[in-house]
Automatic annotation (TrEMBL), chain A:
Keywords: Cell membrane, Membrane, Transmembrane, Transmembrane helix, Transport. It comes from Desulforamulus putei DSM 12395. The keyword Disulfide bond does not apply. InterPro entries: CbiM/NikMN (IPR002751). Its main location: membrane. It is a multi-pass membrane protein. It is found in: Cell membrane. The keyword Membrane applies. One of its GO terms (cellular component) is plasma membrane. It holds the Pfam family CbiM. This is Cobalt/nickel transport system permease protein. Gene3D superfamilies: 1.10.1760.20. The chain crosses the membrane at residues 12-29, 41-62, 68-93, 105-125.
TrEMBL record, chain B:
This is Cobalt/nickel transport protein. GO terms for cellular component: plasma membrane. It is found in: Cell membrane. Its main location: membrane. It comes from the Bacteria. Keywords: Cell membrane, Membrane, Transmembrane, Transmembrane helix.
Length: 215, 101
């Protein structure tokens, strides 16, 4: 769902860049309160894995493909603030090194897949995994958060395209329709990886204030 | 230095395996947004609009003839760069802590 240069008009990409810069700054401020340097490699490995997984497009119906976004995955295992930083890092590497996503659209891509994808994931994963206990809850919460995060990112992308002059009534249903399928793939992969990582003995850190010295 | 434990190393290794050996089998079909852009005829808005010239465009290492190897190499470089960038941001992400007390 990486928007290239040229899709968005100036007012849209400038606004998106301002919003995502603010959100990224806020996320960094939150992790500075919470993260210890021993936990930084966790973010690194998560970012590396999401980069790798994003390269593997899976086919969906109608000669179209999709790939993992990773917002729900990073949120489930690292909590929202670290997840925003992880996603933004992956998107920056993709933009600067691999020409995936335009430079002018980088702020919009971070906003859609990073910030909004993560916030929606956090809003669903936390409550759902507490509501339904055990592994069933993890799978259910992972799947729901993943699907919703992809749909939210697709909605944001559609809205930005509409602001840039593509008719809203056409682009929004098209974006949501195709991503409703891609979101299923996102959900299956995320649930499988979250389960595997938890089974390997990883304790997710949704950090709270005062956690910094606990490890 | 960083305390990178065995499980994290395993995770990094899995990321490398996915990037090197799985990515060459990725579906070549357009992704969701590209599909919508083609169907709704606005894909041409992006033609020739790239602001940056990236060193490894489209996840294919220039100068390597085998498509499989070119993609795998690009994947490996991406994994290392991504991990490295996060590690390099440690000073930004972590406040200097006094955990002695």
């Amino acid at each position: 769902m990486h928007i290239p240069d040229g899709f968005l008009d100036a007012k849209t990409w400038v606004s998106a860049t301002v919003i995502s810069t603010g959100a990224l700054g806020y996320s960094i401020a939150k992790t500075r309160e919470q993260l210890s340097d021993r936990q930084v490699p966790r973010l690194g490995v998560m970012a590396a894995f999401i980069f790798a997984a994003q390269m593997v497009n899976f086919p969906i119906a109608g000669g179209t493909s999709g790939h993992l976004l990773g917002a729900a995955l990073a949120t489930a295992l690292l909590g929202p603030w670290s997840a925003v930083i992880v996603l933004a890092t992956v998107l920056m590497i993709q933009c600067f090194v691999f020409q995936d996503g335009g430079l002018t659209a980088l702020g919009a891509n971070i906003l859609n897949m990073g910030v909004v994808g993560v916030l929606v994931s956090a809003g669903l994963y936390g409550p759902l995994s507490r509501l339904v206990k055990g592994k069933t809850g993890v799978v259910l919460a992972s799947f729901a958060a993943s699907w919703a995060s992809v749909m939210a990112a697709a909605f944001m992308t559609g809205a930005e395209l509409a602001l840039s002059g593509i008719p809203f009534a056409v682009v929004l249903p098209a974006m949501l329709g195709v991503h409703a399928l891609i979101g299923i793939g996102e959900g299956v992969i995320t649930a499988a990886v979250v389960l595997a990582v938890l089974n390997a003995g990883f304790s997710p850190n949704w950090l709270r204030k005062g956690d910094v010295c606990s490890e | 230095m960083f305390a990178v434990n065995k499980k994290l190393l395993a995770g990094l290794f899995i990321a490398l395996l996915v990037a090197v050996f799985l990515s060459p089998f990725a579906s070549p079909h357009p992704d969701g947004l590209e599909r919508v852009a083609e169907d709704l005829n606005f894909i041409q808005r992006a033609e020739g609009k790239e602001v940056l010239a990236s060193p490894i465009p489209d996840y294919s290492m220039p100068g390597i003839k085998s498509e499989f190897l070119a993609t795998g190499t690009a994947g490996a470089i991406g994994v290392v760069l991504t991990f490295g960038l996060i590690m390099g941001m440690k000073k930004i992400l972590v406040k200097k802590q006094d955990c002695s007390g």
